[in-house]
Amino acid sequence: VNARMRCGIEDLTKIMYALETGVPMGLVEELTVIKPRTRRSRSGQAAQQATLLDIRFNMSGYLRETP
């Protein structure tokens, strides 16, 4: 599955932990995290934006049978 989301770093940490420790086990590959550029106001100060990250990754998973 190709996934794309926008969230903060704390949420990303929780999501990745849940994906890789849950059942079925999810494997995250090719993780890309991009911090969007901030625009500057006319006064030269950075405009306040939420610190959202643009996150993209591939995820696969499998179920393991127990004997």
Could you please describe the fold and organization of this structure?
It is a single chain. This protein has 67 residues and is α+β, with helices and mostly antiparallel strands. Helix content is 19%, strand content 39%. It has one helix and three strands; from the N terminus they run βαββ. The protein has a three-stranded antiparallel beta sheet, with helices on one face. The longest helix is centred in the first third of the chain and has 13 residues, at 9-21. It starts with a strand and ends in a 5-residue tail after the last strand. The model has no long low-confidence stretch (mean pLDDT 82).
Task: Briefly say what this structure is.
By secondary structure, this protein is an alpha+beta fold. The protein is built from 1 helix and 3 strands, in the order βαββ. The model has no long low-confidence stretch (mean pLDDT 82).
What sequence of helices (H) and strands (E) makes up the elements? EHEE
Mean pLDDT: 82
Distance between the terminal alpha carbons, to the nearest Å? Answer: 28 Å
Number of helices: 1
Quaternary structure type: single chain
**Sequence stretches where pLDDT stays below 50 over 5 or more residues:** none
**Main β-sheet description:** 3 strands, antiparallel
Strand order of the largest sheet: 1-3-2
Radius of gyration: 17 Å
The number of strands is 3
Class by alpha and beta content = alpha+beta
Helix amount: 10-25%
